[in-house]
Amino acid sequence: MRKLVSLTLVLALIFGVVLVTGCGKNEGTVKVGDEEVKYSEEGGEVTLKDEEGEATYSSKINEEDLGAPIYPGAKMDEDATASVATTGEEGEGSFTVAVFLTEDSVSEVIAWYKGELSGEQNFMDMSSTAGGEEMGMFTFSSGDKSTTVTITADQEDKKTAINIMTGSGAGSIPTP
Q1: CATH number at 59-168
Q2: Distance between CA 57 and CA 164 in Å, rounded?
Q3: Which residues, in sequence order, are CB contacts of 7 under 8 Å at separation 6+?
Q4: C-alpha dihedral sign at 128, 152, 15, 5
Q5: Lowest-pLDDT range, 15-29, 55-69, 75-89, 101-115?
Q6: Looking at the predicted structure, is the pLDDT value of residue 25 above 90?
Q7: 107 CB contacts (<8 Å, ≥6 apart)?
Q8: Which residues of 82-91 are buried (b: 16+ CB within 10 A; e: fewer)?
Q9: So where are the chain's domains?
């Protein structure tokens, strides 16, 4: 776990450097504890490699990556969206998370996703109302791939937030 946290911090540092220095291809090596981790960045993707495997981070997301449709007219929150693909001793895995915002009501978005997703394999609707706030939560899975869609009111922006998380293979997200 400590190594994972260290690699995540290194990834964040490298990604920050890439944003500051701009486009192009950047490569190098950083030391994490006693290990050396190689990194490379090109075209908005950052890859980390060590003796246990590699992880590639990207902020380029589409419906295919998510495994779920994107609500019509919703705008992606690029600061809260990422995809990570890993290869290592435990096998291959991927995890994608994206946040979208819309002016439509929570109720409208919940109804739309329920209609779009209810035919998916192993579909579960765990939507609820608590403290007067409606929240949508849908999960579905097929094979080793699982997807969770949550819909909530974004109090700060006064919009509806849609969070889509998809994982597969080693390190995928569990389905409740």
Answers
A1: 3.30.310
A2: 17
A3: 32, 37, 48, 50, 55
A4: negative
A5: 15-29
A6: no
A7: 134
A8: bbbbbbeeee
A9: 1-54, 59-168
Parallel/antiparallel/unpaired status of strands 75-76 and 91-102: antiparallel
One-letter amino acid for residue 54 of the chain? E
More confident residue, 7 or 46: 46
What is the spatial distance between Cα 111 and Cα 71, in angstroms, rounded to a whole number? Answer: 11
Got the DSSP string for 8-35?
A: HHHHHHHHHHHHHH-SS-EEEEEEETTE
Please give the average per-residue pLDDT across 129-152, as a whole number: 93
Indicate the SS3 state at residue 114. Answer: helix
Q: How confident is the model at residue 24 (pLDDT cuts 50, 70, 90)?
A: low
For 78, phi then psi, to 5°, come to: -65, -25
Q: How confident is the model at residue 149 (pLDDT cuts 50, 70, 90)?
A: very high
Beta bridge partners of 158: none
Q: What is the pLDDT of residue 150?
A: 97
What the block records as the tokens of 78 is 């690029």
Structure tokens at 117: 């997703």
What pLDDT does 2 receive? 37
CB 28 within 8 A of CB 39: yes
